[in-house]
Amino acid sequence: MTIHSNELVLGFDAREMWLDVAEYWPEETKRTFLLRQDIIKPLSTDEYVWRSVFDVDISLQYPQWTGPIQNLWDNLDALQAYLDTTWSERTFPYWFMAVTLQEDVCERENLLEWHDRVSNLITTPRDPAWTFLGYDVSDKWLTSGLSNCGTTETLRNTYASSLNEYHLFDAIRPAVDFMHVTDERVRAHAPFFVFGLWLIKKEEGLAHPA
Question: Averaged over 194-198, what is the pLDDT?
Answer without folding.
Answer: 98
